[in-house]
Amino acid sequence: MNDMCKHWYLMVVDFVEKKIVWLDSLHYAERDDFRRRAILQMVIILEEILVHKSYNDNITPCSPERMISNFSLCKPRHIQQQRPGSHDYGHITVNTATRMKLAIHLVKSKNNLMYDDVLSKAAAYWREEVHKRDFLVSC
What we know:
CATH class of the largest domain: Alpha Beta
Largest sheet: 5 strands, mixed
Order of helices and strands: EEEEHEEEHH
Shape: elongated
CATH topology of the largest domain: TATA-Binding Protein
GO biological process, one term: proteolysis
GO molecular function: cysteine-type peptidase activity
Organism: Trifolium subterraneum (Subterranean clover)
């Protein structure tokens, strides 16, 4: 999910536990209400897809396991940058390498229709950064 084209956070629909999990690496209390509403709106959209007759003819359209709006929305779990010696067990802790691996896996996914566009933009950005660095070194 994206907040104001500035921050990404993750919504996970757990069908086994019947929960909607909200993971956020940049907790900003003033945006919690907006993010919660955005998650609930997405839940309704997903539910409409799941109960639509074209989704799967073999499953009853309004079966309880497909009614995501009945799932509980967990409080946001804030992902924090890992710090040496930090033992805050109330949060999920990741490091920069873990975030980068996740980003690479999402970009490289066969389902990513923007794969070629993302790669070309990344390459252009890298060339620009190299050019800036070379310019600074030559000064």
